[in-house]
Amino acid sequence: DLPEGLSCCGVQAIYSDGAGVLWLGTSRGLVRFDPASGTSIRYRHDRADPKNVTGAGIIGIAADAAGKLWVADTGGLSRFDPKTRTFSGYRNWPSGRLQASFDQATYQPTAYIGSSGMVLLGTQQGLKFFEPGSGTLRVLSHDPADRYSLSGNEVWSIRSDREGNLWVGVKGGGVN
User: Fold this and answer.
1) CA angle, corner 57, sides to 1 and 43, nearest 5?
2) Is residue 25 classed as helix, strand or coil in its secondary structure?
3) What count of Cα atoms within 13 Å lies in the side-chain half-sphere of residue 71?
């Protein structure tokens, strides 16, 4: 039941908003799919248009408290406003592009938005924290000398529980 043309693109990320609309991250951009009506709108990747997604392969979608979508892709982060249908890109991270953070053939990064609006990205180099307000990026990674660090660097999942605790799944390191 995917919108026409998506079978070629591969859905790599799914987010369901409060209205039941599915936001699909594909290798060719962002798709808004309304299961109730069966309608879809595709926001195509266009490197010449600065309002579009910054990279082709969307790997994570999450919403902040304002209802904006944060889209993690192979080029970095974009913030999408569903009301105006516009993107704001964060192309150059302090530590470089996301593309250098993972091998797409074997690893699927994950994205999570914290209650404060902080964007968390799981990569093969650890957990990246991006603070949109200040534009700063911090990385939490495995440190064998620090027993309170991540148990490994390859982060596969990020979730929170009802109490607000953050759970991080790490390849070969279990749950942190």
Assistant:
1) 60
2) strand
3) 37
For 73-82, the CB contacts below 8 A with 24+ separation are 73/25, 73/98, 74/98, 74/99, 74/104, 75/99, 77/119, 77/121, 77/130, 78/53, 78/54, 79/132, 80/30, 80/43, 82/17, 82/32
User: CA 100, 119, 140: angle at the middle one, nearest 5?
Assistant: 60
Model-level pTM? 0.70
Residue 126, amino acid:
G
Segment (H or E) for 59 = strand 58-63
**141: which 2 tokens?**
């990674």
* pLDDT tens figures, 22-74: 998 887 788 899 999 988 888 865 555 555 555 557 777 888 888 888 887 76
Nearest-5° Cα angle at 101, 147 to 103 = 110
One-letter amino acid for residue 17 of the chain: D
DSSP string, 112-127: EE-TTS-EEEEETTEE
**Backbone dihedral angles phi then psi of residue 85, each to the nearest 5 degrees:** 60, 40
